[in-house]
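S1.2 Input.
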Amino acid sequence: MDLDLNTAIRRFLEHLEIEKNCSKLTVRNYQHYLSVLERYFQSKGMEKPNVSDINPETVRDFRLYLSRLPGTHGEMKVVTQGYYVIALRSFLKWLIKNDYEVMQPEKIDVPRNKDHSLKFLNAEQLERLLNQPLLSTKTGLRDRAILEMLFSTGLRVSELVRLNREQINLKTREFGIIGKGGKARVVFISQRAAEYIDRYLKSRTDHDEAMFIRYGGKKELTGSLRLSARSVERMVKHYVRLAKLPIEATPHTLRHSMATDLLRAGADLRSVQEILGHKNIATTQIYTHVTDARLREVHEKYHLGNVVDSNKKD
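S1.3 Output.
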């Protein structure tokens, strides 16, 4: 059974939206990645390719095509190429599930990024970053509340900007959200974060439902003052620069830092998985660099072979 590529992509995107309940952003990203696949075939003179045209040879050629596409700074980064490959693998899995004869997605390796290190901030770096906003200004107070919230909860920036004031219970210091992939989870706020959020909310005189709002600029036609994810990313980058941190930290770096902090304090991977909202614990295992270090300390301290016998004679 065969199917033209354009129709297959359209049906796959509908599957993501309806059956998988993916966010509009996820569907849009997959649409973009697969539209580039269509353009690749068109560049080869194939105006109406079929899904059967996706074979090892065309995939290899497509990846070469991707590597030569322009990126933000020169050629497309390896990590960005990986997004296209992941989208293609998901597309192929869906086709196989629907009885179309296409190549096995497992035959396509995701390109490895040269930088495998996980970026996170240590305690001293975190304090330097958190102390950058000027609390005497309404913008600074908001920014401190945002930074504290990101580190305290491990929220993704997209989850943060969707928050409404009515969601947050500062007495219990917890609230529920629907995260990535429609996964529900409970989020906890630290005592310090709750104090800054409370100060920020009490300073506001507007009636906007959004938890975090922008100051300055024109009010949008919708009447919403809600802060955008891009604005939060720029804000974090600004304070990272002011703090003179050696790491190009982002909102996601604070998520990594929170997870690392919990594991160093003795939390187990399964608990951290639930807190972060990871569907699969394999995703959480990127933090094993922390648990590995702790296990070594335990081994060195408690293993009989490491205990020096004080009664042993020279």
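S1.4 Remarks. The first strand starts at residue 70 and ends at 71.
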